[in-house]
């Protein structure tokens, strides 16, 4: 069953203007330049659709705070769509849309759509590094960083649901849609990928109470770690609030930086995720800070460790000149600040 | 008493973030409804993160409730109670606040207490 991964997440939002502002700043491109709302795409055409909460075209909402209304998956071919339709019609209503896509709800009542993927195949450069005793990744005089670099999300990478029964939810995707587990946090939930995608995960499930059911976060792949760090820094400098990161996960090995969003869900930049094939055997551990990330950092305002000797100690000594100013005091984040708190 | 702003600096139905300790983070959120203001620690009861998705962006569209942008939890401006979301039934931590006769908003706290709270 050649399912590739999520093409689109559709939201029925509370504040269309705030979501537009956020998604553009995040780096997605609005398809309709003169409209607030509609489709915001990554480089390959995957993306986010935002509508008013009461838009009658949207599937019924979940009875929780989530603003997610529809997860649309891309598949490789019509044969896969036909297989999915046949499988789902065994026990649930399937709607076939005019464009050939099919709609139904999963076993936990999340609205799903499957379509021939809208992903455009791209030939893009990877983020390259120079590493000692390895062939250089960049040519002489080719720079690794430049303030002029654009930060452009490439692909809608994965979605993460809060679910009240992670085993039941996982079994639906495994048994009915042929997803495979790549790793698992015991009692919390599995990371999964569909058959036509080698990314470590396009779906992760988190066990929660029923009243939390909905979208926990979603992520777009970036070019690489440097682009991720630049994108997150730019978001922070615009005043956006970090939820978690920057850091690097253990399962999937992907770099991460999560921001809060007006869609009422966290949105992640990710980069450099592991890929797997059928030879991989999944790992299982209890979820904990140490199993979830190999390192975690916290943004701080830029500063520079220069400016002369400490105040009152430099006069008359070598290297100090009249009129020298003391070193600028960096702005420290209080030690009690919540985990991953950025300096705003 | 720490003066935060004038009532007129917070549009009706909006909220602003403050940090009385002088650090760069907004550790307090003050929301306005008409002639009333309400102050809370800017911290979600669900997970220890700030509420808004952006500096000074705390409210839902109607201005009726404070929102945690991580998972969409909504909180009553008047009581701080979470009415929907992961921390339903829990409360934001209220902070004492006063509105002076000349329309200035004060946090009722000594500076050292504020530092202790924030450190």
Please describe what this structure looks like.
The complex is a heterodimer of chains A (344) and B (119). Chain A is 15% helix and 30% strand. Chain A is an alpha+beta fold. In chain A, the strands form two sheets. In chain A, strands 17-10-11-12-9-13-16-15-14-18 form a ten-stranded mixed β-sheet. An eight-stranded mixed β-sheet of chain A has the order 2-3-4-1-5-8-7-6. In chain A, strand 14 (242-249) and strand 15 (255-259) form a beta hairpin. The longest helix of chain A has 13 residues, at 225-237. Residues 326-344 of chain A have low confidence and may be disordered. Chain B is built from one helix and ten strands, in the order E-E-E-E-E-E-E-E-E-E-H. In chain B, a hairpin with a 4-residue loop joins strand 9 (97-99) and strand 10. Mean pLDDT of chain B is 89; it is low at 113-119. The interface between A and B is large, with 42 and 32 residues.
Layout of helices and strands:
The complex is a heterodimer of chains A (344) and B (119).
Chain A: E1 3-13, H1 16-26, E2 29-30, E3 38-41, E4 47-52, E5 68-75, H2 78-88, E6 95-96, E7 102-105, E8 111-116, E9 155-163, H3 166-176, E10 180-186, E11 189-193, E12 203-207, E13 214-221, H4 225-237, E14 242-249, E15 255-259, E16 266-271, E17 283-286, H5 289-292, E18 293-296
Parallel strand pairs in A: 1-4, 5-8, 9-12, 10-17, 13-16
Antiparallel strand pairs in A: 1-5, 2-3, 3-4, 6-7, 7-8, 9-13, 10-11, 11-12, 14-15, 14-18, 15-16
Chain B: E1 2-6, E2 15-18, E3 28-33, E4 36-41, E5 65-68, E6 73-76, E7 82-84, E8 94-95, E9 97-99, E10 104-107, H1 111-118
Antiparallel strand pairs in B: 1-10, 2-3, 3-4, 4-8, 5-6, 6-7, 9-10
């Amino acid at each position: 069953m050649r399912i590739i991964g999520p093409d689109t997440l559709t939201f029925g939002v509370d504040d269309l203007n705030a979501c537009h502002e956020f998604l553009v700043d995040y780096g997605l491109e609005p398809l309709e330049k003169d409209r607030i709302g509609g489709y915001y795409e990554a480089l390959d055409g995957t993306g986010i659709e935002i509508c008013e909460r009461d838009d009658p075209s949207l599937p019924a909402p979940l009875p929780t705070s989530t603003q997610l209304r529809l997860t649309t998956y891309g598949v490789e071919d019509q044969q896969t769509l036909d297989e999915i339709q046949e499988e789902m019609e065994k026990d649930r209503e399937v709607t076939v849309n005019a464009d050939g896509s099919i709609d139904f709800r999963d076993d936990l009542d999340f609205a799903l759509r499957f379509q021939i993927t809208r992903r455009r195949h791209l030939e893009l450069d990877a983020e390259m590094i120079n590493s000692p005793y390895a062939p250089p990744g960049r040519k002489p005089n080719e720079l690794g960083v430049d303030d002029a670099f654009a930060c452009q999300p490439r692909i809608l990478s994965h979605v993460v649901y809060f679910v009240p029964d992670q085993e039941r939810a996982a079994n639906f995707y495994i048994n009915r849609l042929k997803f495979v587990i790549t790793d698992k946090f015991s009692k919390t939930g599995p990371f999964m990928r569909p058959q036509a995608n080698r990314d470590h995960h396009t779906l992760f499930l988190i066990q929660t109470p029923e009243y939390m059911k909905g979208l926990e976060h979603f992520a777009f792949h970036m070019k690489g770690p440097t682009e991720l760090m630049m994108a997150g820094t730019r978001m922070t400098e615009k005043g956006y609030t970090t939820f978690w990161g920057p850091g690097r996960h253990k399962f999937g090995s992907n770099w991460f930086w999560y921001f809060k969003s007006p869609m009422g869900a966290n949105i992640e930049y990710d980069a450099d995720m592991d890929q797997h094939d059928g030879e991989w055997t999944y790992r299982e551990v209890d979820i904990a800070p140490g199993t979830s990330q190999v390192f975690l950092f916290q943004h701080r305002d830029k500063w520079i460790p220069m400016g002369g000797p400490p105040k009152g100690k430099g006069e008359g000594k070598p290297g100090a000149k009249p009129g020298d100013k003391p070193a600028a005091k960096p702005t420290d984040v209080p030690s009690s600040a919540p985990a991953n708190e950025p300096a705003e | 008493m720490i003066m935060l702003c004038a009532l007129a600096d917070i549009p009706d139905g909006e909220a602003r973030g403050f940090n009385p300790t002088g650090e760069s983070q907004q550790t307090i959120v003050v929301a306005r409804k008409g002639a009333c203001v309400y102050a809370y620690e800017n911290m979600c009861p669900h997970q220890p993160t700030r509420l808004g998705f952006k500096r000074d962006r705390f409210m839902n569209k109607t201005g009726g409730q404070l929102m945690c942008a991580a998972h969409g939890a909504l909180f009553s401006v008047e009581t701080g109670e979470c009415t929907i979301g992961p921390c339903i039934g829990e409360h934001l931590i209220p902070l004492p606040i006063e509105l002076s006769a000349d329309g200035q908003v004060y946090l009722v706290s000594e500076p050292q207490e504020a530092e202790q709270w924030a450190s």
